[in-house]
DNA sequence: AATTATTTTTAGACTTGTCTAAAAATTAGT
DNA sequence: ACTAATTTTTAGACAAGTCTAAAAATAATT
């Protein structure tokens, strides 16, 4: 069995992996198609192929899920993606909203030595510039605690740990508002009407919509 | 005109470029096929395509040569290849005989910011780990002086500037013989019979075949 | 200059990944 | 439970890049 996958195949595995985080059910053809901006018929073809290679479990009309082997590959790709993001920000002066497209290319470079050495060179980072956890060499991931800022109650204090949405527009909004990873947030008030919240962050008061709050991972301070 | 080339197209341009260094004539279909380890018929197809994109000059049965636009692209790829090689050796602990395959992949990453920043990060290196010149941002290259060790006469002294053959086996031979870029060589004796030479290098006497000497670029010391 | 050998091109086929349009299966709605 | 709506799959086509085998052009030989 040829385990040297095409970039396309790798992208499918990665898509299924990331869609699998939120659920334990099989991932629908349509969901994959939407994620990869392709057509359902193309997805069906590819899932069959990956199923033949025993990288996904697949029964007609029942959606797809990763096998152990498939998940291992997906995690390796994500590991590479995030390591490269760290490299770009830490050493090459990229902003956190500029790294995605380049990392999307770099993640497909095949060389275990490269990945290992890069990891070492970066001093074994645990999180990427967006706060996402970097899988270790064995594929273990410290998933986010999963607490969103939107769930924090008034008068509580938390620390920004990551962003869920990594689109450039969201990241630029955060930059312009002075919200960074590590920032301490105090929830001053929650508006019942639209669930927006008034917060104290980086020395200023700021009103943020629920949409924003739902996309910020935080660690609650006791 | 879509200027976003596939990796395959880029590899053809690079192959034609490197074959063009030794000659001013058009490059034959067969030569390209051999370089890329493919068939002549495939080369014909691709050359036509590149000709349509005005990246190569092509007349049936007359071989191919790069247009100004094609050469510019080829040089950019070579620039990226060599910058990555420097990165791998300088920062990621790769040996000079290990970098080629990885750089072959990395050279296709598309991001002008990445290339610029990498160049700056590496402090604008002028040569890669094999002594090959790195084109600058505008595509200018300091070609090798072109003097090979084989042309150096007995009792003359020279400095190793680069290797012509970058295969792993040749580089490992050099490592095991203590021959490095920058090494000072004195030609002690030239054997008329087989053109081998006895040299003094890195504190030892060494006999090398003409084959070896023909693959080492040197700068003659006056 | 005619013939032979080599190189190059063409023609047709195959693979990968994609698409559209139609058919089949599943899910939802009453 | 039975249509209706939605999702998924199939069938057939296409583009990129490759191949083999045969034809055409060029180069070499005598």
Short description:
2 copies of one chain form a homodimer. Chain A is an alpha+beta fold and 222 residues long.
As residue ranges, the low-confidence spans of chain A are: none
Task: Give the CATH level 1 class of the domain at 149-220 in chain A.
Answer: Mainly Beta
What's the end-to-end separation of chain A, in Å?
52 Å
Query: So, CATH architecture of the domain at 149-220 in chain A?
Result: Roll
Strand order of the largest sheet of chain A: 6-5-4-3-7
Shape annotation of chain A: globular
Order of helices and strands of chain A: HHHEEHHHEHEEEHE
> What is the strand tally of chain A?
7
Q: Report the total helices of chain A.
A: 8
Pairing-aware structural class of the strands and helices of chain A? alpha+beta
Largest interface: A-B, 18 and 18 residues
**CATH H-level superfamily title of the domain at 149-220 in chain A:** Ferrous iron transport protein A (FeoA)
> What number is the mean pLDDT of chain A?
96
CATH level 3 topology of the domain at 149-220 in chain A: SH3 type barrels
| Biggest sheet features of chain A | 5 strands, antiparallel
SSE inventory with pairings:
Two copies of one chain form a homodimer.
Chain A: H1 7-21, H2 29-36, H3 40-52, E1 56-58, E2 64-66, H4 68-91, H5 100-106, H6 112-121, E3 157-163, H7 168-177, E4 184-190, E5 197-201, E6 204-208, H8 210-213, E7 216-220
Antiparallel strand pairs in A: 1-2, 3-4, 3-7, 4-5, 5-6
Helix pairs in contact in A: 1-2, 1-4, 2-3, 4-5
Chain A binds a DNA duplex (30 and 30 nucleotides) through helix 3.
């Amino acid at each position: 069995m040829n385990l040297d996958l095409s970039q396309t195949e790798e992208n499918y595995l990665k898509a299924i992996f990331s869609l699998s985080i939120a659920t334990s059910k099989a991932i629908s053809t349509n969901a994959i198609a939407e994620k990869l901006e392709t057509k359902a018929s193309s997805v069906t073809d590819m899932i069959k192929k990956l199923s033949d290679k025993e990288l996904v479990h697949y029964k007609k009309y029942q959606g797809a899920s990763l096998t152990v082997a498939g998940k291992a590959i997906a995690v390796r790709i994500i590991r590479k993606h995030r390591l490269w993001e760290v490299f770009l920000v830490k050493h090459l002066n990229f902003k956190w909203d500029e790294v995605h497209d380049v990392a999307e290319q770099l993640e497909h470079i095949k060389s275990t030595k490269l990945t290992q050495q890069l990891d070492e060179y970066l001093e074994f980072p645990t999180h990427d510039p967006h706060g996402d956890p970097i899988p270790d060499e064995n594929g273990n991931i410290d998933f986010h605690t999963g607490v969103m800022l939107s769930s924090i109650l008034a008068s509580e204090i938390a620390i920004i740990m990551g962003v869920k949405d990594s689109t450039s527009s969201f990241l630029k909004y955060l930059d312009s508002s002075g919200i960074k990873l590590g920032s301490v947030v105090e929830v001053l008030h929650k508006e019942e009407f639209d669930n927006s919240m008034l917060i104290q962050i980086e020395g200023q008061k700021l009103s943020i919509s629920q949409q924003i709050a739902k996309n910020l991972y935080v660690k609650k301070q006791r």
